[in-house]
Amino acid sequence: MQMTATSKNIINSMGIAIDNLDKQAKAKKIYETRFDANQLSKHIPDTYNIFRPSLAVDITKLYNIYI
Description:
It is built from 4 helices and no strands.
């Protein structure tokens, strides 16, 4: 992602989400791990848009809001 024209904001927020998920998983906190996994999944439409720009990402974002 760093080699593409990806926003630093997306990369940094994904890194924070991954770090939080890793920390909670190592602490074996089930609820917090699930929460952080959901937080990380919010970044999937943005990253998918970077590598597959032909998909309308707004539809995927709307889907994630209602899950």
